[in-house]
Amino acid sequence: MIHLERLHKTYFGAQPLHVLKGIDLDIAQGELVSIMGASGSGKSTLLNILGILDDYDEGTYMLDGTLIKHLSETRAAHYRNRMIGFIFQSFNLISFKTAVENVELPLFYQGVSRRKRHAIAMDELDKMGLTDWATHYPAELSGGQRQRVAIARALATRPRIILADEPTGALDSKTGVEVMQLLRRLNADEGITMVIVTHDPNVAAQTGRVIRIKDGVIEHAAR
Amino acid sequence: MRIDIDTYHELLQTLSRNKTRTFLTGFGVFWGVFMLLGLIGGGAGLEQMLSSNFEGFATNSAWVFEQQTTKPYKGHRKGRWWSLCLSDVERLRQQVAGIDVVTPVLSQWGVHAVVGDKVFSAVVKGIYPDYARVETPKLLYGRYLSDADMVGHRKVCVIGRRVYESLFPYGGDPCGSKLRLDSTYYTVIGVNVASGGININGSANESVYVPIPLMRATFNRGEQVDLLALTVRKGVTVTDITPAVKHTIQRAHEIAPTDDDAVMVFNTEVMFGLMESLFSGVNLLILLVGIGTLLAGAIGVSNIMMVTVRERTTEIGIRRAIGATPRMVLAQILSESLLLTIVAGCSGIVFAVIVLQMLQMGVDASGGATGHFQVSFGAAIGAAVLLSVLGVVAGLAPAMRAMTIKPVDAMRED
Fold it and tell me: What is the ipTM of this complex?
C-alpha cells in the first residue's frame, strides 16, 4: 500500500534542517501501524509526506501503486480527497459548520450530489453513534464526540488509508481508549490501512506494528 | 466542485460569521454606489432644471438693447440716450448677412390685466407673429398671434401661464373671454405655457402678447421699439454677426463705431455654451467623486477580505487537507467578495433611486422649473457591471493569497 525508499526531506531556512535522512518503509494494505519518536525526530514530517500535505526532496513514495512526487497542488488535493482520510490531534473541524456539514465537506469537494453526500454523512455519523448530534456545532460537542466527527469525516470518502496524528492526544484517557477501540474496529472490519503517529506507548501497544523514528531515520520497525 | 444550494449556503455562512464587519465593509460599497448614482441623477436633474429655464428659446438667438453712449460722436455728447426704431429691423435684414429672423418687441410693465374681479399686474408685449421663431410658444389653449391679427388691428391677446392662473383660477379654456388691459378690452385667443425662465423684458409667464401695430397705437409708442430679437441662419453663429449688427445700428443712430457699450447684444448662444461647459465640468467632478468613493469602498472590501483570509488560514488549510483544490479556494474567496460587493452595491442603487425619487417629488410639489431627477436604466446597469468587476478585482488579491496557503502551514499555525 505504502512504499517509501530512501526518502529525504530538508527544510531550507536560515539553517538547513535535514529532517528525514533516508526512510525505507513498507506498509501493507489493511495494516494498523503506529509511528513513535521524540519531538523533532521527524515523525510528523513523515506523516505530512505520507498525507501528501508536504513534498519530499529525494527518494520514492509509492501510494497504492502511484508515484507521489512533485505533484501539482490540484493533483495533490485530488489524491488527498480520494485516497486519504486525516484525523488530527486538535480535530480540525470547521467551527461554523455543524457536525454533519463538516462530514459532508470532503464529499462536497468531490462533487457528490447534495442529497447523496448528506445521506453518506448521516450514515457515517450514525456509525459513530452521533446521529442525535448531527446538527450541533463543534463547540457544543465533547472532545470525544468531536474526534468521532473527525473520524466520520475521514471515512466519508471511503479512503484507502487513514493517517492519524496523535488522535488521542487531546482526549482524557477513557475517551482516548474509546477512540482507539473505534479505530481498531474500523481497521479490522473494513480493512482500512491506518498509520497513527503517537507519543503514547499505550496507543502504540494497540497497533499491529510500531515504527520508531530517531533523528530522521527508522530505528526500529517491529512487527 | 458542484455549484448547488450549499455553495450559496457556504457563502452566507462565512459572510454572516462576523455580521458587524460584513455590514461595515458592505456599507463602504453601498455608500460609494449611492454617491455615484445619487450625484449622477441629481446632476442630470439640476441640468434639466436649469435648461428648462431656456425652454422655447432658440439657442441661436440674440437680443439687441439700447444703452447710453459712452463716447461723443458727430456733435453728440457722451451719455446720450438713443432709441431703437422699427426701421432698424429692415436695416438689419438688408445689411447683415446671416440673419434668419429679426423682429421688434415692445414692452410695457405694470399694466393691470383684469378679468371680472381678478387683477394681475402683467407685462404687455407687442410682437409680430415671427417672434414665435425666437421664443417658441407652448400653447395650452387656442392659437398664437397671426398676420391677420396684425393687418386687421384685432384686439386679441395671448396670455402667459401665471396670467392665466391668476385671471382664470378655475381653469378651462379662456379663449373668447374678454380681458381688459388698462382701459382697452382684448379677446383672449391663446394660453402660452412655455416655462420662460429667461426674463428678457419680462418673462413669458407674466406676459400678455398683443399685435405690435395695436400696441403702438394704444400705448402711443410711435416708431420706437424696446428691443430687437434675432436668430441666425444655419452654419452662422451669433458671435459671427454681432460686429455687423452693432456697426449697422451704430451707423444708423450716429453712435461712435468704437462705442461698444452703446449697443448691447445679448447672445443666448454664448449663455447656452457657458451652461454646457459648466455642466460638463460638474459631470466630470461627479464622476471623479462618485467613482473615487466607490473605489474606496472596494479597497475596503479587499482590505477586509485580506484580514479575513489571514484569520481563516487554519480553516482554509483544513479545507485544502480534505480535498479543496487551490481553484476551489480561489472561487470561494472571489465569490464572497463578489456577493458582498453586489448585495451592498445593489442596495446602494435602490437607495439612490428612492432618494432621487423623493427629490423629484419635492421638486414637482414646489412647482416652478422641472427636472427629471433620476438615473437612467443604462446607468444602473452600468453601475451593476462596474460593481461585479470591482467585486472580482477586490477579491483577487485576498483570493490569490488564500490560494497559496498550504495545508501543512495551516496545521502548523494551529
Answer: 0.90
